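ok here's Methyl-accepting chemotaxis protein:
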Amino acid sequence: MDVFWAALTGDALHMGIGALVAALSLAFLWFVVVQGIWLWCSLRRARGALKRVAAQPQPDPRPQLAQVFAGRRYIGLWREYEETLHAQRSETDIERSVQAVRATVPAESFFNGELIVDARLHTEFFKHLPGIFTGLGIIATFSGLIAGLQSFDVTAIDPEALKQSLGGLFGHVWNAFMLSAVAIALAMICTIIEKLVYASTLHQTAGIAAELDGLFKAGVGEEYLSRLVASSTEGTAQTKQLKESLVEDLKALLTNLTEQQIQATRQLSMDIGSNLESSLQEPLRKIADTVNVASRDQSESAGRMIENLMTAFMAQMRDTMGGQMGELSAMMRQSAEAVTQVEASLRTLVGDMQRASQSSSEGVQAAMAELMTSLASHERQQSEAVGNAQVQMLAQIQAATDKMAAAQESTSSRVNSAAAEASDRISAAAAEAQRASDQAAARAVQLATEMGETTLGAIGQLESGAARIADMLAALDGAAARLGQSGSSLAGVQQQAAGLVGQIRDASELLRRSSDTVAASSGSLAKASAQIELVSGSMASEADARDASLREVQAAMLRSREAAEEFKQFSGLVTDKMAEAVGTFGDRTVAVLDRNLVSFDKELTNAVDSLRQLMERLAILAADRVEA
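and the structure:
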């Protein structure tokens, strides 16, 4: 002990570490050992009380359990668990006494180590206390080593001084190891005690939860569910039986009631019919005669009015459409004449093109024939006079070339004049067709406007006639209303209003006949409208024909334009071919002349050489003869 005290008080750091270890040890003794033992005893007593309550079975042990947990720190857990208990009461008893108490959740959900033991013993802190002790022991060990090394004199040579230095070093090391050993021993002791206390308290807590689960049976939800299924099945069967019995009873009841109502209604109808037939026959006959006379007069007046209206409308349409259709026909004839002129112009253009092409080909053929003739004569005259032949050949080639150029120029001028004339004629025809088309379009617009105004006027007259007919129908409706009022008054007098329906149906039949007459008049009006639609259709067909004529004129102009383009392309092609032919002919002619001139030069050279040799020989012979 003296050695430990000396090691503890030998250094300020060691004293601090010792004080910290002592404080933590005291806290462990109070919070873990003392509180754990007290908690273990409390849990043990509560568990014993629960066993005594379980030994005395009773329907509702909750009051006894409340006394067991009263005054304890975990009384709140019991109250929360008590709220989850379900009391089953008697269905036959008037007071509905409690038969049993059932558990809906396990008791372990409330009585467990996390809620009872951990919070009371501060387990989250003290389970790390052994590690803290071990760390303090390690710090004490290294601090003692460092202090001993600092006090060691490395320069000491004297054995006594060296011994004293080593003694101080070993003393510091010994003190450090003593503190470390004490800290490690405390760590092991704390670990053993903490685990023992914690395990014992958890055991008692689990025992309390098991005792509570033994007091209250679980599975109340499944039991209630099975009861609900059984009651639902039984209710379905009873409902089905009740429905069948109600259907049979209601069927018999409604059958009897319907038969009685049919008999009563039949008798009432017979009585009402006989009474009304005797009382209303004469007044209704007079009313029917009056309605027939009024309907006949109104139908005749409506027919005359509609006839006059349609006569005036047709006369106006005839006056309007006659002149306009004549003008439209004249415009269409002008369009046809313009198209004819375009066609004639195209035919003239094609003829001019054919003649120009024919004259061009004839000129080329004549020039080629003349050229070939000149070449043949040149070949015949070549052997006679080379110099004259060459001059004549060049002259003939020049003449042929001039003729071909003249022919080509005349052909080009004729083709250009024909194309210009055709273009002028096509332009004139197109302008004429455009003017005719514009006039026809303007006239068609004017005609459509006048037709619309005339149609609107006729429609207005028809609307006025329809308004008059509507007034007549309104008058008939008023008469029918007055007839209904007179019938209602008669029915009120007789107090049998239901029987008036049959006689009023006859009056409605008479009114329906009048309406049929008016409908016939409306049919006549519909026929007139149909005639108007036919006239409009014919005008539309005329407009379509005019559009078709305009499209044909446009197509003819398009074809003439395409023909002009084709003629232009053909003229260019002919010109290119002629230029190519003339160039080829000139090249070949030059090549032939070159070959002939070369051969002529060779022969002339040979002849001159032969003549010179001959003259030399003659000179030699003459000299020989002179010498001889």
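+1. The chain has a mean pLDDT of 66.
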